TrEMBL record:
Sample GO molecular function, one term: nucleoside diphosphate kinase activity
Annotated Gene3D superfamilies: Nucleoside diphosphate kinase-like domain (3.30.70.141)
Cofactor(s) required, per the database record: Mg(2+)
Protein name, as recorded: nucleoside-diphosphate kinase
Pfam families to which the protein is assigned, alphabetical: NDK
Protein encoded by which gene: NME1
Residue intervals of the Nucleoside diphosphate kinase-like domain: 4-83
Sorted UniProt keywords: Kinase, Transferase
Family, as annotated: Belongs to the NDK family.
Gene Ontology biological process terms, A to Z: CTP biosynthetic process; GTP biosynthetic process; UTP biosynthetic process
E.C. no: 2.7.4.6
Keyword Kinase: yes
Length: 83
């Protein structure tokens, strides 16, 4: 089996709201990503703060967390074949 790299991809609230989930997944698949798992979630403030911990000191951090809580997010794991 070829080497692969596991990747996390999130479709943010505006992409979900605008019904772009299928098109976004299609584009990743065309680039060689293979969908392993997918879940529609409403991310909690605690989860988002943990996910974006490296940005906590940036001035936009609070707005980012608020935006990501504004609607559902599609969370996905993919494999990408390394060539």
């Amino acid at each position: 089996m070829a080497n692969s790299e596991r990747t996390f991809i999130a479709i943010k609230p505006d992409g979900v709201q605008r019904s772009l989930v299928g098109e976004i997944i299609k584009r990743f698949e065309q680039k060689g990503f293979r969908l392993i798992a997918m879940k529609l979630i409403q991310a909690s403030e605690d989860l988002l703060k943990e996910h974006y911990i490296d940005l906590k000191d940036r001035p936009f951090f609070a707005g980012l967390v608020k935006y990501m809580q504004s609607g559902p997010v599609v969370a996905m794991f993919t494999d990408f074949l390394l060539r």
